[in-house]
Amino acid sequence: MKSRNATWAYYLGIIIVFGTHLYMLGFGLPAEQMYGHSVINLAAGSLLAYSWFSK
Questions:
Q1: pTM
Q2: DSSP letter at 28?
């Protein structure tokens, strides 16, 4: 079960990171979206760290 959660956390973190950066490349990132982008990427980093340390 732990490994399954780690796998999901890893893929979700990767999707978030790539998705937000593809959005930035396609549409740019206005100053008012910078805070949200940072929070979302910190959450993605936390998911990636969880997947790394729980294996």
A1: 0.84
A2: -
